Amino acid sequence: MNAKRVLAVHDISCVGRCSLTVALPIISSVGLECSVLPTAVLSTHTGGFTGFTYRDLTDDIVPIKEHWRALGMRFGAIYTGFLGSFEQIDLVKGLIADFPEATVYVDPVMADKGKLYSVFGPNFPAGMRTLCEKADVIKPNITELSMMLGVEYREGPYTREYVSDMLERARAFGARKIVLTGISFRQGQIGSVYMDYGTGETGEVMRPEIPGYYHGTGDVFGSALVGACESGLSLGDAVECAVDLTVGSIARTHGSGEDVRYGVDFEPGLADYALDVRAHGAPHLVKVVEDDQIRIVASLARSIWPKAFHGMEPDEHLEYMINNLQSFEGISDYIRNKGFIYWLLQCDGRSVGYMAYVPEEGCLLLSKFYLLEEYRGRGLSDVMMSKAEEAARGMGLPKIRLETNRRNTGIVEIYKHFGFEIVRETDRDIGDGHINHDYDLEKVL
Ligand code: PXL
């Protein structure tokens, strides 16, 4: 399956940048495939234009979905926005149930500035709430959240207690994460707050408010959020990238004096948005030089090793290795006195793994190669192995060798996948009577 395929479920308003006409370019700009399920076709959006055409595509949703199912189609994410009718709420819930592997982002597009959009009836917020209950990530504005919670809409600026209380109430929807837009804590400032209910990660991204009302900004923000999250960014980094694209688009539009019904001028900001996402999210290696970095390596070893070697070695053997070889002092000694080169793997703005190697006679010894459990299976070990190969080649060494615990069949298979072969079994005394029962593996470059 193409895990990077995002399905955007919104209307297509032919003119007036919003919904699918912004979701497609923004999500595509970060290298993700954006498929679409149009919920309605309108000549223009409904905000400020009069006499727009409106073709409701409710009847097409199930046949389109069934065709995809017959083809065995899979989606990495489903991102829903403006729905064409009340009945579509249940149909979209059915769609979500039929593609259970997808991460579901629901933007309950229906209201702003305390008012429900004119095309929706009064029961729409309660219906939208049931859709939010199927989501992994929800992105309401404060009006939509108030309506779904059945509480009175209040104009900002807000106190932090008020906003925290709203986030807490929204926990009942069951989504893992929420991004709440249209929040201000003082006059002249506006932004978003976010909360990851699972990890407790929470924060706010505030910017100076630009006067005026700008159409389609919720969709620019939502699409940028989905693009960034699906690129592997943490929620906080994704919100930053989305806010920057949105605010930049508003600033250009404000400056140009354009008719705001045509939406915001987001296109010139796309290249920077894509670079921003890449800079925050792309996994990359950082050489370990400073004491602080060595401490991070030592703490990664402490988190990774007990799980990685669980059931393979007695606890005291593991403790000996961690305390002596992968402690701050042990790693410092390897780097500063023994010629080892350590690298930290950065991803989602944090250190998620590490590797180390040292040149030997005729080969490179790959001495450490570890990833946090939750970051395995995402191709990140390729980044580390490529670095080891690049280093060996750069030093003119034709071979990489490594030693790995014989009982760790999973990692042996991974090394074989990278082209390593078992060359011997060894029982090495690593000091204090501790013996490592290893395979020696080699890869000829
Ligand atoms: O940007 C939200 C939106 C999406 N689609 C249509 C709309 C609106 C907001 O007014 O009218 C058709």
Report on this model:
The protein has 445 residues and is α/β, with parallel strands linked by helices. It contains 14 helices and 18 strands. The strands form three sheets. A nine-stranded mixed sheet has the order 3-2-1-4-5-8-9-10-11, with helices on both faces. Bound molecules: 3-hydroxy-5-(hydroxymethyl)-2-methylisonicotinaldehyde (PXL). 3-hydroxy-5-(hydroxymethyl)-2-methylisonicotinaldehyde binds next to strand 1 and helix 7.
Q: How many helical stretches?
A: 14
Main pleated-sheet profile: 9 strands, mixed
Relative strand content: 25-35%
- The total strand number stands at 18
What brief labels describe this structure?
single chain, 445 residues, alpha/beta, nine-stranded mixed β-sheet, 14 helices, 27% strand, binds 3-hydroxy-5-(hydroxymethyl)-2-methylisonicotinaldehyde
